[in-house]
Amino acid sequence: MRYVTPRVPLRPAISALPAYVPGARVPVGAAxxxxxxxxxxxxxxxxVQAAIIDAASxxxxxxxxxxxxxxxxxxxxxxxxxSLxxxxxxGPITPEQVVVGNGSVAVLAHILEAVVDAGxxxxxxxxxxxxxxxxxxxxxxxxxxxxxxxxGGLDLPAMAAAVTDRTRVVMVCTPNNPxxxxxxxxxxxxxxxxxxxxxxVIVDEAYLEFVRMDDxxxxxxxxxxxxxxxxxRTFSKAYGLAGLRVGYAVAxxxxxxxxxxATTPFGVSHIAQRAAVASLRAKTELLARVETIVAERARMxxxxxxxxxDVPDAQANFLWxxxxxxxxxxxxxxxxxxxxxxxxxxxxxxxxxGEPEATDLFVKIAAGWR
Length: 370
Ligand SMILES: *Cc1c(COP(=O)(O)O)cnc(C)c1O
What we know:
binds pyridoxal-5'-phosphate; 7-stranded mixed β-sheet; globular
């Protein structure tokens, strides 16, 4: 008889997980534009680099566990952005409402760990950010993906209808990754009016700074009006700190305290904390770069539409091209021609907005596909 050594079982929810597919890594020395991860193509500002270098001399110490300076700077920055009416009605955003983490994906995981019990349902749009099904499963929840509406938009009525008494959380990704379309604030408010107040609604605003539309979502206003809202934001995209991993949630104090209890101790490094604070100080310069990216997005979308592509409204730093069954082959051709994109096999490709030279090259490649 053969003796079989018993193996450590993985939780079924973990064995069943799809692997996270990161944007392709550009091989060293390759002459390719990396438009696959929605990164900011601008290098860190000199002032931010100086903060990073300065912080390096303290890494023998643990970071500030509560990221006090960053949390206070965020609360002050968010408060400074409030309208006078909002400030008078709801007061400032306080540091106790802000919870930072090792990228907003980690913050999202901590939020779910704080509120989701085994089998609780989490409703989210799909196709959307590919971390969602992973963090839901890891937290022990049950995913309830709701298909997107036409043109890659969130189907908020269908999402509201998917809420049952087993639902603990709903995720609203706006602008939606990877399709780029965003909902209006009016639509968000109509949606929130239909969701029970004991169901958490996470408004993932990773691309907030790139939105240029009428009636844009104001996550902080939604938070002021609805105690079950949590706003999720990141330094990875507009602020260009993807490599340092800093994101944060803004919530009512009781929920924020719960999320903080679930966070990894010392999760945000000292270097990341200092870089994020320096980035808030350099906000004007950084938002000027965002303006450049927004203009480049318009140029790229116009060039593609002129070729006859049906490019959905793009409110983030990427465009979506629906290519169906041809997606994988087209993505490989783009890579071979020097532009790395993010394919979603059978659906379409997401192309980040980067250098003007990258736009020109991608537009040329796409012309060859018509
Ligand atoms: C990129 C992205 C994030 C940010 O992730 P970080 O962990 O902060 O780098 C969050 N949500 C969505 C939808 C994203 O596309």
